[in-house]
Structure formats: structure tokens, C-alpha cells
Design goal:
The longest helix has 19 residues. A two-stranded antiparallel ribbon has the order 1-2. It contains eight helices and two strands; from the N terminus they run ββαααααααα. It is mainly alpha-helical. Helices cover 52% and strands 2% of the residues.
Length: 169
């Protein structure tokens, strides 16, 4: 295949999995028989290389070694905190006492369980309300790195509220 009389050295194929490539080709290269033929050639080459089999495999880095799905919440927290990356250099390990997933469940809770709204009723005691709010603060504090000012401040509030709740009814 040639371009301007010279052999084509490189062509970047992208967007095939999402379908964007076909949309862009139809928008910008619909009248180019060469681009249409190049697309057909690439699709055939991918199929010959086993693309259909690869597409049904699950993403290797989307699961802990035990098979449990890694949630977006877990992924974002690990990515944001260097202290967690140092403490758990293999984030996929499912070791119950030493893996990141175990740490996450103990310190943050089950994935998707982050309390966004405190659920208090008229019958909730003051002590229970303070305790619930303190737990929420602790959960939020753990989302920040070990040396974060936000984490420090939230943990000070957490411990202060725990002391305060002891005297509440």
C-alpha cells in the first residue's frame, strides 16, 4: 500500500473495541477506498490472530487472586495512597491477614458501603448519633494518606467525638 507514491510505513488502528474507529472512518474517510480496504484487512488479521477468543476473556487486573472483583472504589483508593502501595506491593493478593482487600474491608468497609448520609431517627440516642458520626468521620479519614492534614484533622475529631460520646446519653 502506498501513500503519495511511497510505501505506507505506519497506520495507527484504534477504537475497534468501542466501535469509535468505524464511526470516525465513516465520518472522515468514507470516500477513501484505501482506508476502507485497510480496515477490512486489519479486521481479518485480528480475527486470524484469535481476537474472538481474547474478547471473551476477563480482564486480568480486575480481580483479586481469589477471584473477587476489585471495585472502582478500591482501585481509586489504592491508586491515590502511596502508603497503601508501599504496605501492599501486591494489591491482588487475597491473603486474609495481609492483603489489601482485607485491609479495605476492616478499615473502610465492604465496597460500596461508604456511608454518604447519616441515618438518624427521633429515637436514636445522642450517644448512638455521636458514635455513628464518629464512625463516618473515621471512614472518611482513612481515604486520605497517612501524612495528610485532612486525615489527621478527621482522626482528631473522631477520637474527640468518641470521648465525648462516653458522657452522652
Amino acid at each position: 500500500m502506498t501513500v503519495n507514491g511511497e510505501s505506507l510505513g505506519f497506520y495507527h488502528f484504534s477504537g475497534f473495541d468501542s466501535g469509535d474507529q468505524e464511526l470516525m472512518l465513516n465520518k472522515y474517510g468514507a470516500k477513501s477506498d484505501t482506508l476502507q480496504a485497510l480496515r477490512v484487512w486489519y479486521l481479518n488479521a485480528c480475527e486470524a490472530a484469535g481476537q474472538s477468543n481474547v474478547a471473551i476473556r476477563r480482564y486480568q487486573y480486575g480481580f483479586y487472586e481469589g477471584g473477587e472483583t476489585i471495585t472502582l472504589e478500591e482501585r481509586r483508593l489504592y491508586r491515590a495512597r502511596i502508603d497503601l502501595q508501599c504496605a501492599f506491593p501486591d494489591p491482588f493478593s487475597a491473603h486474609p491477614k495481609g492483603g489489601y482487600s482485607a485491609w479495605y474491608r476492616v478499615n473502610v468497609g465492604e465496597p460500596g458501603s461508604a456511608v454518604s448520609i447519616l441515618s438518624l431517627t427521633e429515637t436514636t440516642s445522642t450517644r448512638a448519633a455521636i458514635h455513628q458520626f464518629a464512625q463516618w468521620l473515621r471512614q472518611r479519614a482513612l481515604l486520605y494518606g497517612s501524612y495528610s492534614h485532612k486525615r489527621f484533622f478527621l482522626m482528631v475529631l473522631y477520637y474527640g467525638l468518641r470521648l465525648f460520646a462516653k458522657g452522652a446519653r
